[in-house]
Amino acid sequence: MSITAAQVNELRKATGAGLMDCKKALTETGGDHEQAIDYLRKKGLAAASKKAGRAATEGLVGSYIHAGGKIGVLVEVNCETDFVAKNENFQAFVKDVAMHIAAAGPQFVRREEVTSDVLEREKEIYRAKARETGKPENIIEKIIEGQVNKFFADICLMEQAYVKDPDKTIQTYLNETIATIGENISIRRFARFVLGEGLAKKESDFAAEVAATAGL
C-alpha cells in the first residue's frame, strides 16, 4: 500500500513522532491512522504516550450553552501547569470538547468507565440478535466484539468521532493538542444538562405540544 505524505504529516501532528517513524507505523498498519497511533505508543515513540504518565492537576472547567439555554455542558480538562491552562490553544480545546459533548451526548469519558451491568446488557442483546440468524457460537462472539466496539464509539467521549471533524476521534484531537502544547492533557469528567430531562410533563403541556406539531 502506498503511504502518502499527507498521511505521514497527519500522524506526525497527532503524535509528535518523527517522520520516518510515522511512515513505518502507517506501513505496518496498512495506512490505518488509529492503529498507527497505537503502534507508535506501544513503541514509545508517540509524544502523547510519553507525556501520559505526568501529573496533570491544573487546567480548566469549561462550559457551553446551546439551543437557547436548553442544553448545557460543564467539562473538566486537566493539564500540567497553570501557564498552559491560560494558553489559547488549550482553552480552545476545552471549548471544543464542551461543544462536542453538547452535540454528541456521550455517557462516559472512556470505555473503562462503562459499568459491567450496562456492558453485559448490551452483549446479551447482541447475542440474542445474532443467534436468531443461526450463526455458530464462535462467529457470534466475534460479532459481539465488533458490536461492543461500536457501542463504545457511540457512548464514550474519547472514542466518538469529533463533530467538527468526523475523520478524527476526540482521542486523536487530544493527541494533536498534546503534541502542539507539549504537556500532558486529560479530560477528567463532564456533566451534560438537558432542560426538562427526566421531568414528567403535565397532560395539558403534552397536548399543547401535539397540537403545535400537528399545526392546530
UniProtKB/TrEMBL annotation:
Gene3D superfamilies: 1.10.286.20, DNA helicase RuvA subunit, C-terminal domain (1.10.8.10), Elongation factor Ts, dimerisation domain (3.30.479.20). The keyword Protein biosynthesis applies. Residues 81-84 are annotated as: Involved in Mg(2+) ion dislocation from EF-Tu. GO terms for molecular function: translation elongation factor activity. Keywords: Cytoplasm, Elongation factor, Protein biosynthesis. Associates with the EF-Tu.GDP complex and induces the exchange of GDP to GTP. It remains bound to the aminoacyl-tRNA.EF-Tu.GTP complex up to the GTP hydrolysis stage on the ribosome. InterPro entries: EF-Ts_dimer_sf, Transl_elong_EFTs/EF1B, Transl_elong_EFTs/EF1B_dimer, Transl_elong_Ts_CS, UBA-like_sf. Residues 92-176 form the Translation elongation factor EFTs/EF1B dimerisation domain. Belongs to the EF-Ts family. It comes from the Bacteria. Its main location: cytoplasm. It is found in: Cytoplasm. This is Elongation factor Ts. Pfam families: EF_TS. The lineage of its organism: Bacteria, Pseudomonadati, Thermodesulfobacteriota, Desulfuromonadia, Geobacterales.
